Amino acid sequence: MIINGFGKTGQRKLKAAHVVVASIGGLGSPASSYLATAGVGHLTIIDSQRAKLSNLNRQMLHWGPDVGRLKVESATEKLTTMNSNIKVDAIFEQITSENVNRLTKGVDVVVDGMDNYHTRYLLNEACVRNRVPFIHGAVEGLVGQLMTILPGGGPCLKCAIPKEPPKKPLFPVLGATPGVIGCLQAMEAIKLITGVGKPLVGRMLIFNGMDMTFDEIKVNQDPSCQVCGRQGR
Asked: Using CA of residue 24, residue 28, residue 33, residue 36, what is the dihedral sign?
């Protein structure tokens, strides 16, 4: 990268990095694409679903002919076409309390591409326990949010969102919204790996595409948090 602060050293760090992308849908598709093309040497993509027609407005690694295919297979094909010099491990599994530790342990960064808070909380807890940076992202409609969890260096997702939001039967999303947030998640991962810039720790970034604004909410670490606070240690 011919960008101030990156250079050959930064590129070597990206080449040596291992990033997990949890779910390869609306958020995971752009995030993994930009990580692959940036030169992250090892991607592990996790998903338990097959591509559906309704996914195609926002899940850019899955195309018309991919409907019915495993998402991890469809995504692996595209990612290795983008960059044939990277390794992609495709894991066709649902993330659960039984396997989340195995899936996140020993990696450099975990990217949250999930569409539910139950699994996000599992990932958050596992990443804090294993001291792995966790980049949270979520979207609805034209609104998205982003936060980086750096274990030992700030608040976790439970500090920011203590209780799981009410579940909705339908989750309308304009396709470009997860594209914005997924790209920002990739940027945060690249920054963390290379050590360039200031990560989004202790802050929740809110994107509103309706009026095209970015706002920031300060997030404090909760000493009583069961995950990262004194009670969780």
From this structure: negative
1, part of any domain: no
Assess if residue 107 is contained within a domain. yes
Residue 132 is assigned to a structural domain of this protein: yes
User: Based on C-alpha coordinates, what's the Rg of the chain?
Assistant: 17
Query: In the predicted model, what is the mean pLDDT of residues 185-208?
Result: 98
Confidence at 225, pLDDT banded by 50, 70, 90: very high
For the domain that residue 169 is a member of, what is the CATH number?
Answer: 3.40.50.720
E strand residue ranges, 133-229: 134-140, 143-149, 203-208, 213-218
87 touches 42 (CB < 8 A): yes
User: What is the pTM assigned to this prediction?
Assistant: 0.95
Cross-strand pairs, 44: 20, 89
pLDDT score of 170? 79
Domain count for the chain: 1
Beta strands, E only, the chain: 18-22, 42-46, 87-91, 109-112, 134-140, 143-149, 203-208, 213-218
Structure tokens at 104: 């996140």
Whole-number pLDDT of residue 6: 84
